[in-house]
Amino acid sequence: MIHVCIIGNGIAGITAARNIRKLKSASEFKITVISAETDHFFSRTALMYIYMGHMTYEHTKPYEDWFWDKNNIELVRDYVQKVDTLEKKLNLQSGSTLNYDVLLLATGSSGNRAGWPGENLKGIQGMITYQDIEAMEGNTEGVKQAVIVGGGLIGVEMAECLHTRHIPVTFFIREKEYWSHVLPPEEAQMISRHVRDNGINLLTEQSVKEFKGDSQGRVSSIVLEDGKEYHCQFAGITIGVHPNIKFLEGSGIETNRGIMVDEQLRTNIPDVYAVGDCAQHRNPPSGRRPLEQIWYSGRMQGETVAKTICGKPMKYVPGIFFNSAKFFDIEYQVYGQINAQQQDFEEQFYWEHSDGEKAIRIAFDRESGVVIGFNLMGIRFRHHVCDRWLREKRSIEYVLEHLEEANFDPEFYQKHEDEIAQKFIQDYPNHPIKRKRQGAIAALFGL
Ligand SMILES: Cc1cc2nc3c(=O)[nH]c(=O)nc-3n(C[C@H](O)[C@H](O)[C@H](O)COP(=O)(O)OP(=O)(O)OC[C@H]3O[C@@H](n4cnc5c(N)ncnc54)[C@H](O)[C@@H]3O)c2cc1C
To answer: In whole angstroms, what separates CA 413 from the centre of its chain?
Structure first.
């Protein structure tokens, strides 16, 4: 029997475990999942809802606790301190060891720290783990002023969490607008506005110098590079994440920022694989980054590596990029390639609703008119439709003509479809779409 050990019970490791079990029976493959954080798999993206009281921890578990026994997937709650790739052995914090035939590293990531003086004072934390959410309960009790540093997705989620407890938040970001290295300017402005409309004191172009503490060693203020000081009893640091790879030192497994993997998610050591947040792709597919620390990528990598481990070697082909998130009340979806700064080879058509909280951006190739990406704010499109349009390399004309197919909420489009098409014609008066005498767009404008 082959023993597969998986380190990490997040989406990547658990998807792999489930898919290996689908392909191999318990008499062929023994599966052990080791994780230090929680006994069972839970949805990390739902962590904020636990703090906000919308869900309990139990609700965030996609599978009942009996599922693992029933499927002969052994769960071990422990921390792997050392991987011995010569002996094929794991040393656990509890003092026990585990031998493996195949090892899958799915260790996820941890929050970054900048090394600011005082950043380890009590009341300063990130929001990545279940333990962080538990700590936040205690750390925010009785807090009158909170600060958050770092403007990514987790920062805005933390701001929303504190907001639901009526804790005033000052949110410091380095950039000119919220998440402006990912979002194009209009969307970045929209979210900055929306965050402020929700009562968050968002301050842009700010750099932290240090945190100061009180006599109990608890944070009492944050000092910025420009000398300004803000009092606070809680500080969130949300300045990005880095893969959990430190415990691999001396194992011979090649790492850089993450664990280096090839197209089949293999590391440099035979029978050792890596997936999810911790994996760094040597040759990422075109348009993709070497490290993709998002839920959907972890799930897809877990599915792919399961096949390879079960003797059906498979390359990781991520397909069309997709991600989604929520900034307070504004839902965000991105499909394909959306550049924060418009590139020379592309056009970016942008429509924004007059309420300033809904927008659609469609990026297309300037020469061919082929659509390469969608950015949606406050509007949801059907995943399979956008995915198909991008795979089929549909033109901007085609997409605008068939926009109603992507409607998640048809009522919305009854109201705005015409407006979107009109905006396009206004922005691109010389575009061939104007000469088109057939199809829905032409009909709309009586062309
Ligand atoms: C608050 C928050 C919100 C997010 N929102 C979104 C979102 O809206 N959309 C999106 O796409 N992504 C989102 N993400 C990112 C997404 O959750 C991650 O990309 C994904 O969960 C990573 O899954 P993973 O399986 O690679 O690792 P993880 O879920 O991090 O699991 C790895 C596990 O391995 C354990 N581990 C690590 N090292 C060891 C060791 N040596 N021994 C034992 N155990 C170990 C860790 O403790 C952890 O439990 C969010 C993340 C956070 C924190």
So the answer is: 28
DSSP one-letter code for 432 = G
Rounded Cα distance, 31 and 24, in Å: 10
Q: 351 Cβ partners below 8 Å, 6+ apart? A: 359, 360, 361, 419, 420, 423, 424
CB neighbours of residue 228 within 10 Å: 11
Nearest CA to ligand 1 atom 50: 45
CATH 3.50.50.60 in the chain: give the residue spans.
2-110+242-309, 124-239
Residue 107: closest CA among 256, 298, 307: 298
**Per-residue pLDDT tens for 263-317?**
999 999 999 999 999 999 999 988 789 999 999 999 999 999 999 999 999 999 9
Yes or no: say if 105 and 247 are a contact pair by the CB < 8 Å rule.
no
Residues 374-413: tens digit of each pLDDT: 999 999 999 999 999 999 999 999 999 888 888 877 655 5
E strand or H helix at 91: strand 89-92
Q: What's the Cα-to-Cα distance from 425 to each of 401, 413, 419, 421, rounded to whole Å?
A: 13, 18, 10, 6
DSSP-based three-state secondary structure for 405:
helix
Burial class of residue 65, CB neighbours in 10 A (0-12, 13-18, 19+): exposed
Where does 214-275 show beta strands of DSSP type E? Answer: 219-224, 229-231, 234-237, 241-243, 259-261, 272-274
The ligand 1 site (C-beta within 6 Å) comprises 7-13, 34-37, 44-45, 47-48, 79-80, 106-109, 127-128, 153-154, 157, 244, 247, 276-277, 293-296, 298, 323, 325
Edge to edge, what strands does the sheet with 2-7 contain?
Answer: 73-77, 29-35, 2-7, 102-105, 272-274
Instruction: Please name which of 342, 383, 403, 417 lies closest in space to residue 395, comparing C-alpha atoms.
Output: 403
The structure's pTM equals 0.93
CATH 3.30.390.30 boundaries in the chain: 322-445
Residue type at 345?
F
Instruction: Classify domain 2-110+242-309 at the CATH superfamily level.
Output: FAD/NAD(P)-binding domain (3.50.50.60)
* Fold that domain 124-239 belongs to in CATH: FAD/NAD(P)-binding domain (3.50.50)
Atom of ligand 1 nearest to the CA of 11: 25
Q: Provide the 10 A C-beta neighbour count for residue 412.
A: 15
CATH architecture entry for 322-445: 2-Layer Sandwich (3.30)
